Fold:
Amino acid sequence: MKRFFPEEVYNPITNAGAGLSALSFGLIIFLTILDFLSPESKPYMGILTFIILPGFLLVGVAFILFGIIRERGRLKKGIIRKSKLILINLNDPKQRKFLISISLGMVLLLFFSAFGTFKAYEYTETDEFCGEVCHKVMEPEYTAYLDSPHSRVGCVKCHIGEGTGWYVKSKISGAYQVYSVLLTKYSTPIPTPVKELRPAEGTCEQCHSPSYFLSEKKTNHTYYLSDEKNTKSELSMLVKIGGGDNQLQEPNGIHWHISQDNKISYIYSDDRRLVIPWVKQITKDGKEIIYRSTEVQFDEKKFNPENLRTMDCIDCHNRPSHIYHQPDKMVNLHLAQRKMDESLPFIKSISVHALEQKYSNKPTALDSIEITVDQFYKYNYPEIYNTKLNSIKTSIGYIKKIYSRNYFPYMNADWKHFPDNISHVYTPGCFRCHDGKHVSEDGKVISKDCNSCHLIIKQTTNGGLTSSSLDGLEFEHPVDLGESVEFLMCTDCHSKN
Ligand code: HEC
Ligand code: HEC
Ligand code: HEC
Ligand code: HEC
Ligand code: HEC
Ligand code: HEC
Structure:
């Protein structure tokens, strides 16, 4: 009997391989069409179509080749059928037809696997792949991201950047992450800082020029104390965000750290970069100034070279997108915006208290918040409970919202586990260096002067007294601490709650 393919193709291994490839190929085509037609995209289907099935396809092809080679060996040895050497004769129409169909098949296969690979590449760059595939694990980052100034900036713009080098690097670490998710080997919370994050030059600075930071930015704050009256105070300040090295201004201000005129590097001695015992500044004219902490014991001859960093955007803006807000801040904001009712006694205190309890999971947390606040008013203020039940319920609704947005007990993700470095009140932030205790050999101290980074231009104190000045006012701490806050670390009291 004459056969269409050469003799060595007819063996069980090759047949099995061909079956597998054909099946995977058919499925890929089918799912791709389905994907095109379906109105919403489905992360899991994407993984199947563009990652798992092409894998099977390749295994099938490997089987085909292996079967052919093995069969050829057997035929050669004359084990089963009589051996025949292949003789390509293009004058034979059968052979010609065979060759043409094989080549056509190969071209098609190559085309589709190239297309498939391209789709896979594209797919692994989408936000849904990053944010939803490992749903539970990434839920905190994804939720915070969607509510951030960068919600329209793709994950890859900050996490990978342009070019294949970092693509491969991040995919290798990504592959490990997929593995750790599948085997539930990931740690909670996800360890931060991210060691293999690409330097800001290739990410942030692709959109934000480090040269253009001009003048000051005004911010307003309203505070409420934890007393019965929720005593209110207010503050407006100009944050000196200048410092870009352009021709339009003096190079002074916060963004001075990243201007081309100087270079700041530092060594951290803990794994969260919160303890910084050594800072080096190289000035415009190449002078080196080293500031050493007078507080932290540190042997600068024996340190892990990985802990030496050159300062870039991420050393201050470590939470440009995954911001877990501090509860005082959020409750103050909701009270100031009149979403929550500031006339409810102890509303500030009870809200922060309810938010900061340790809960094992989200449903328990939301139930407990409801019960805690409701019972508090029911038993302590029955009259108010009757007359203002509506505003109590509304407030409870907002407290739950604050919780859902900022606390993720399953992953241990919240403001304490992911400290924001942009300020210094609730987390060390700027005061990691600007604590007034980093001194150079000739006695220069990294400044802790309250007016060096911002100017308080208007302040309304607890008593309702308002003062304002464009030269800067001295900060009046809302409760009397018995000594000047200038000499204290805000976090000593404010990071604990
Ligand atoms: C504007 C830039 C930006 C965008 C957009 C962004 N990230 Fe991040 N992300 C960061 C930075 C910066 C860090 C590192 C924080 C650190 O090292 O302290 C980080 C850290 C993380 C971490 C480690 C845990 C943590 O919170 O520190 C995860 C996980 C993560 N990002 C996931 C995502 C996902 C998923 C998306 C898209 C849905 C995304 N990121 C979008 C900037 C970004
Ligand atoms: C793809 C472009 C893009 C990238 C990459 C990017 N940003 Fe942004 N960023 C923006 C845009 C656009 C805004 C303005 C958003 C708005 O006002 O709604 C912004 C706003 C900001 C703000 C002001 C936020 C606020 O609360 O007003 C900061 C700070 C910032 N980015 C820092 C960073 C840092 C740090 C990185 C790198 C980790 C980064 N950005 C990466 C586009 C980008
Ligand atoms: C020394 C710490 C520090 C470094 C380094 C730093 N920033 Fe900032 N940046 C700040 C502070 C503080 C603010 C004001 C914070 C605020 O109001 O939210 C700010 C504000 C901004 C804003 C908002 C400006 C506006 O007009 O509202 C952008 C955008 C920004 N930074 C981007 C960057 C980028 C990009 C880099 C790296 C090239 C960078 N920053 C490096 C501390 C820093
Ligand atoms: C890694 C250490 C480090 C961190 C963190 C840091 N700084 Fe600095 N900063 C320095 C050093 C060093 C100087 C130069 C000494 C000085 O002027 O006090 C400096 C100087 C400054 C200056 C004066 C710049 C000028 O115009 O001369 C400002 C403003 C400033 N920092 C703001 C901030 C703010 C705001 C933060 C937090 C968001 C911050 N720094 C975090 C190391 C740091
Ligand atoms: C190295 C720079 C730096 C120094 C020094 C500094 N601050 Fe700040 N401070 C900041 C930054 C940055 C913020 C955050 C600004 C923002 O949210 O826009 C901030 C925020 C604040 C806030 C508002 C906090 C909030 O979140 O509501 C107060 C109050 C404050 N600082 C008081 C002080 C006092 C008092 C001193 C002197 C002991 C001081 N600061 C010294 C950089 C500094
Ligand atoms: C010795 C402890 C201590 C130190 C240090 C301290 N505070 Fe406070 N602070 C308190 C207490 C107590 C309250 C009242 C809290 C309350 O009623 O909820 C408070 C309240 C505040 C409030 C208003 C309440 C709110 O909503 O957060 C602000 C703002 C504040 N402090 C800023 C600062 C700043 C800025 C620093 C550092 C320069 C600082 N504090 C250092 C103990 C301290």
